[in-house]
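Hi, here's the filled form for the chain we discussed.

Project: internal
Contact: R.S.
Residues: 499
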Amino acid sequence: MPGRLERSSVVVPTIGRPSLDALLDALAAAPGPRPAELILVDDRPSGAPLRPERPGLPPLRVVRTGGGGPARARNLGWRTARTEWVAFLDDDVVPDPDWYGQLADDLADLGPDVAGSQGRVRVPLPEDRRPTDWERSTAGLATSSWITADLAYRRAALAAMGGFDERFPRAFREDSDLALRVMDTGSRLVRGRRRITHPVRPVDRWVSLRVQAGNADDVLMRRLHGRGWRARADAPLGRRPQHLGVTVAALAAGGLAVAGRRRAAGLAAAAWLAGTAEFAWARIRPGPRNRPEVATMLATSALIPPLATWHWLRGVRQHRRVTRWRGAPDLVLFDRDGTLVHDFPYNGDPDWVRPVDGAREALDRLRTRGVRLGVVSNQSGVARGLISRAQVDACNARLAELLGPFDTVQVCPHGPDDGCACRKPAPGMVKAACAELDVDPARCVVVGDIGADVEAAVAAGAVGILVPTPVTRRSEVAAAPHRAATLAAAVDALLAGAW
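And the returned structure, exactly as it came back:
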């Protein structure tokens, strides 16, 4: 099904691990038609540019997050893509040789009610010995639901959900959260036939301690999806209740000893020791039982219960109040005069195009998150004969030189009495920009300095944010449902999903 494959992009977030080479080699060597694009999202805070080029890869693009974490990296990837389907692969997997063809088959003939298709994962374990605790944990990926090691989503579904919730800071639960939100809309997620191999990556002996931070993410999942989220996400509870009990026993033993209640302290200490020993044996019994593994299991089994409890309590405190994730908008349209640049009425001279303070930085922050940008500008000076359309275009070209490129520029050259459908507060320019870029107006925000900008947004089904200036009427400020003191503050709100 090459046609379906050509309407797909592959997104690979990476932190530059050596395993990336094996993934890219497999994608380059695989036979058959290629997807429209391979988007490599470099999620390192800094470092030399990646050198992923090799013959045989699909058309390649590399974008950078600056180190925002896996959810933000995936969001930048799908926002960069322009295809119907976006297939996510982790940077430590190896697709089967027929992965391209199987992806095409998996996506073929899926009805509009299907929002995503998950691939199948195999985790090779050692054949000459029993697997270690970490290897058994990694093997659980083979039966996990909706993990983005290999998961393709319709881009429209990702946009409607605002993508992955960036409040999940690590590669844990952010994919389950998205899947539950998608299924809450009535859409279905299905399993395909394509396969990847997920090798067990080498780790140090303390990795099991670091992964306990995921207990805070479990609290966020419960806040967002209720008590029954584990059953829906196929995520077993694990041993957190036992960890809490063991931790309470340890604290009680210490407190009772300080209080001089030796017998009670001894009983509490015995309970802690019994719980810790049971946990350690449960991890040691199925493993290779060699000296390094046993020593690691003994040490970490004593530390995991308090760490798990600590991170769970941290999550309870951090996520006391949460709202549904909305994400950044897909498109932000800016009024030009008074919002992006200082307002010189009927300006036709590019030399007088002077950005407001912080405008370039604010727009670049949106661009680095994959948000598309546009301009919607009333230019009645053309109708009045004060400036020409060529002068307007020259000023807009200068605007792009100073503030960076825009994905769409909409200009209304009519006067207030011309009765056109494009002059703000009419919605024509906003609707035209959304249609040009294939963006749902509900995922579009208009930022301007007067009430007409906000009214145009509302009339188009978009959201308006007013950034007042000294000439903005008080009545317009009072009527605006969303306001920001500065352009930078408006961008802060957009990136936080507060729009």
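Let me know if anything looks off before we file it.
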